[in-house]
Amino acid sequence: MTGLPRIRVGRALAYVAALAISAFILAPIYLITLSAFSTFDAVYDYPKNLVPNHLSMESMNVFLDSDGVTDSLLRSVYVAVITIVACLAIGTPAGYALARFSFRAANPFQLALVSTRAFPLIIIAVPLAVTYIRVGIDDTIYGVAMAHIAFTLPLTVLVTASVFAGISYELEEAAMTLGCSRLSAFGRVALPLALPGVAASAIFIFVTTWNEVFAAALLTLRNRTLPAQMLAALDTSPLPYRLAGGFFLLAPALVVIFFIRKYLLTTWGRVAR
Amino acid sequence: MTTIAQETTLTRRRRRWEALPYWLILPTVVYLGLFFVWPMIQGFGLALRDEDGNWSWSAIDTMVNDAAFGKALSFTFLLIVVIVPIQFVLALGMALLLNARLRGAGLFLYIFLLPLAISDLAAGIAWSAIFTERGYLNTILEGVGVLQQPFIFLDPTSRTQLVIAVAAAEIWRSTTFMMVILFAGLQGIPKDYVEASEVFGAGFFQRVRHVILPMLKPSIQVAILLRLIFAFEVFAVVIALTGSGATVLAAEAYKWQVTNENEHVAAAYSVVILGLSLAAAAVVLVALRTPRERRLR
What we know:
The complex is a heterodimer. Chain A is mainly alpha-helical.
């Protein structure tokens, strides 16, 4: 038995497996996209069309013209923007501290951040809903954003820490010997170098808040984000509405993953453990 | 986490500013204290008090004696038992495929990562379009002649069928999450080890079994641990696929909070989810622990 054919068969099987898994992943995405851009009748048709020959914006328009949909879309965007900005503003300094300084609380702090992942976020959502009603910020996008910040902050700190750790401190020191203060050395040297990594964690925060259903549905009643709106409308809305909405929920993934695919495997994969 | 520590020991040794790092982490500590730790303590308080604020088991009693509790608990467990093992094998296979330097690896990477950014609600909606009676699966199966008439996959009276449907959607959506962690672990295995085993004639499965799996153990531990924790929170995908045909713990928490407006029982459910997550985490940590003398790093 020679090695060569065995390796070739193995390679061929690997391609078959990779193609099969790709098909498994892409098929539902293709089908929901197809449904979202079909005529109303085609969505209800049976047997279903598997090829795009009834393309139309009809279903999509029904969805977008429905009560509250554009508002909820906008709210989802607002919540995402607030969460990203606040999360980076709060978390980046902490990430920088972990990467650059030796201090006694560093390890306990890091451990605490890692262990937050063991706690299901559901246990935070219920008490927050109660507190929000008491404080009077229930049913607001700020309330949802504040919950989302709490969910994403630990990972943001860990990811930015690993980003800054990957940037040589010598560069900042050089800037300081050339007359920069510590702050301007950070701002002019470390931050620009860290920007791609920070942007990747911003995108990751975006994905989390865009997709988060449970807390958003619990904390809002009328001012719903898109996922909360979709969840509430699941059993009352027509099929084309649901499928077009499902497409809207899913669409950012196609773009976002393209930009952060490298980071997901290096930084994030390492930090996650 | 060791990598960050290692990378920065030098810089740390070089400069010791006493107060500055504490100022830098202060906002994060305060925020997580207010919005993470405090709500969690409050959650226990809510679960263990009645409407008048007295300590009581009434919320727990209500939860346990509700017929939906047992159903939600068993359906959640059933899902985990079906999903996680399949996911682990699939995620390992996907990670190995990405590691195999196939032609078109960049495209495969992009496709394999896609589900990571897809919500459980979107997954549930997409798969309901597939499984529904007048849906895509029936179209295909009838088209190729396997079925003569549409089959009701999402039969609310058949728990087995509902579990399979939800499991399909969850395996589709969340296997990538495990894959990312396992792939990162694979990168950390020195090539010499794998090559050495090849030189000594180990086939693919022997390599996986005797070289890759043992060295991947820390990553496997984390991947299964985090996946289990998330699995206890399974929510929107079940609602989207089964309607009211099946219920899970998180869906009950949601129902008690929003529909029944009883935050005490809702909190009791969330405490149960937390307890199960921590118990599962403990089991995984013990079952997959690596004895200190066998650790490589």
